[in-house]
Design a protein that fits this description.
This protein is 19% helix and 40% strand. By secondary structure, it is of the alpha+beta class. Strands 3-11-5-8-7 form a 5-stranded mixed beta sheet, with no helix packed on it. A 4-stranded mixed beta sheet has the order 4-10-9-6, with no helix packed on it. The protein is elongated, with a radius of gyration of 59 Å.
Length: 372
């Protein structure tokens, strides 16, 4: 009885311990890991040519190992614990290479243009279908001539001309001539694709102010120079008018104290009228001219000595001029108009001045008579 129990106990023990011995024999026959963590080496996906231990198996002395008795963490658990490592797997390292720059073509055409007028130049006007092109001129447009009015329409609004194509032919072209008060503009008109047309073309005269004046001193100087040039031009015209002589001769002359005074007649300078007086000083002293008066009169019907003066033909002018001895000068007296004279009408001229050292002198002369 005892022998049978003992044999059964030994057999049960062998059956229980046999798998344990078989498992231990299999572990001892497997190859050993070559790293210090006791885990097989696997290639590191982040560093080229490097390896790292596989932390999913085997004992480890890292802080996340089994030193505290916790079971080893799997790869998924470690990725959740370290999000930076999880993000790193999604990073793809690309080799830097040259990326060709895109060539963007910037159109140089501008729809708004400013041109300086040149009468010898033919300008090009670009128009587009369903678009209008405007031309601003420096003065009012009078006439517009279009080469082919069936292709383009031109309308005038003062100094602005509107041009647009009235055909759908993209190759249509013609010429156009615009006449203003003093200028002529010549164009070659053609049709271009939309976006390349001339929206507004402004023409300036060569002497026009093309920039905004930001210097008031420059404007003052320019105006002063213009006034000076105008005065110089007027002085030249006056001297020319004096030398040219009267356009309506009317000779009234006389000599007093060796001073010859002659009213030569009337002259005209554009819209201005003048009486022309000449004084020749034959004295040894200087003569000072202070004033001249010119009046138109009508003789009496029954008595010639009776004179009726016309208040509409009465002109006076003051002078501050000297006539040196042995010289002569001419003076212009501005009048409102050239008076017409009949057989009973005449002109009276009164000259006032001073002969130096001899006092004031007053002369009076009538047409048909002499100075007294």
């Amino acid at each position: 009885m005892k022998k049978g129990f003992f044999a059964g106990f030994i057999l049960s023990l062998v059956i229980v311990l046999l798998p344990v011995f078989l498992y231990m024999d299999a572990r001892s026959s497997s190859p050993r890991p070559s790293n210090s963590y006791g885990a097989p080496n696997v290639p590191d996906p982040f560093i080229s040519g490097a390896i790292r231990p596989d932390r999913s198996t085997g004992p480890s002395n890292l802080p996340s190992g089994t030193d505290n008795g916790d079971p080893p963490k799997t790869n998924e658990q470690e990725k959740e614990a370290n999000p930076d490592e999880k993000k790193a797997e999604n990073i793809v390292m690309l080799k830097k290479r040259d990326i060709p720059q895109a060539n963007f073509r910037v159109p140089k055409h501008e729809g708004i243009r400013t041109r300086v007028y040149d009468p010898n130049r033919i300008y090009t006007l670009r128009t587009a279908i369903s678009h209008v092109s405007l031309i601003d001129l420096p003065e009012e447009a009078k006439e517009v001539y279009m080469g082919d009015s069936k292709l383009f329409l031109a309308e005038v609004f003062g100094s602005r001309v509107k041009v647009k194509p009235i055909t759908y032919d993209p190759a249509s072209k013609t010429n156009m001539i615009i006449y203003t008060i003093h200028k002529r503009f010549t164009f070659r008109v053609k049709t271009v694709p939309p976006g390349e047309e001339d929206d507004l073309t402004t023409f300036l005269s060569p002497d026009a102010e093309t920039v905004v004046n930001l210097n008031p001193l420059k404007t003052v100087i320019r105006e002063h120079m213009e006034k000076k040039e105008a005065r110089d031009l007027e002085a030249k015209r006056t001297e020319t008018l004096k030398e040219a002589g009267p356009t309506m001769p009317l000779r009234i002359s006389g000599v007093t104290r060796r001073i010859l005074m002659t009213f030569l007649g009337f002259s005209r300078n554009q819209d201005s009228f003048f009486g022309l007086l000449e004084i020749r000083n034959g004295n040894s002293r200087r003569f000072y001219l202070s004033g001249v008066r010119i009046r138109k009169y009508k003789s009496g019907l029954f008595w010639e000595g009776q004179k009726e003066f016309d208040p509409r033909s009465d002109w006076s002018q003051s002078f501050n001029a000297w006539v040196d001895p042995g010289t002569s000068k001419r003076f212009l007296v501005q009048v409102g108009h050239v008076p017409g004279l009949s057989s009973r009408e005449g002109i009276r001229v009164v000259v006032e001045g001073t002969l130096r050292g001899e006092g004031d002198i007053r002369w009076r002369g009538d047409s048909g008579g002499v100075f007294r």
